Amino acid sequence: MAKGTPKSANRSKAWGAEAVRLILRNEVYLGHMVQNKTGTVSYKNHKQITKPQSEWIKVENTHEPIISQDVWDAVQKMDNHPSRGRTAKCGEIPLFSGMLRCMDCGASFRFIRDYRTKRKPSSYKAYACNRYMSGGKGACTAHVINRKALIAVVLTDIRSKAILAKRNREALKERILAMKKTSNEEKTSLLKTELTAIEKRLAELEKLIQAAYEDKVMGRIPEGICVNLLNKYESERSEKLECKKELSAKLAASEANEKSVDDWLDMIQDYAQLEELDRATLGRLIQKIEIGEKREADGHIERDINIYYNFVGFVEL
Known about the structure:
Blueprint (H helix, E strand, L loop, with lengths): L16 H7 L9 E3 L2 E3 L7 E3 L6 E3 L9 H11 L20 E3 L6 E5 L11 E5 H6 L9 E2 H21 L1 H50 L4 H33 L1 H12 L10 H7 E6 L3 E3 L2 E3 L2 E5 L3 E2 L3
């Protein structure tokens, strides 16, 4: 009789969350074979280590995928989302954790309570510039914003854009594309300039590597110097290739405007009746929120709050 865990009639046949999470982050299920991800320290030290991604060996389209490229890209975008946030002591990620940025210094925001109140625990909840909280007035200003007030602003902004997306989709689309074109022209130009410089340097490195091999074969330089040069060139080439890959991805993203705007319009229009904010909704819709400092204008206090949405960025109406 085989030993092991008895089969339970009540055991669920559904996939667990952890299993799904691992599948969505493994390129094998995308149809690619990835090898050389781990190895030993040396031929003397057999301790297993994780190798840098530049040393992985990947062969694409070796078998039938079970997840699509669109799903993979969406998961990668979520993993690299700047507003993933830190988990609090209660095990949950606070509502705006990781999303708030100081409009003046760029620092993140810190959650604060007012413990001077007689009520315990304090019902006052707010956020403030982390650089100010750590370094005082010499570092930045407070930029304090009440949590309830911030929630109201974000809800209003989401609902207003959702209603506009439903009622006047094409006009909103044209406005966003015009804004993105203006901001992307300069960004795209810079990316192309960087990419051209990297490609030029890669071509130079190919020639230098070839010349070093020829000098070694012809005996024009000692073997030790040749090895050092080759290691230096190969290291720089690996670095430049990785940089080229990142720049190419950024360039492709900056040029894929119309589809990203359509995706955002399809998504945002479902939130015209949004009544309550939760972390999942914020993560799906918003990339970051910039908070400006309060200022007096025409006898009243005002401040700038810029909300940057996924796919389209800041949408000014």
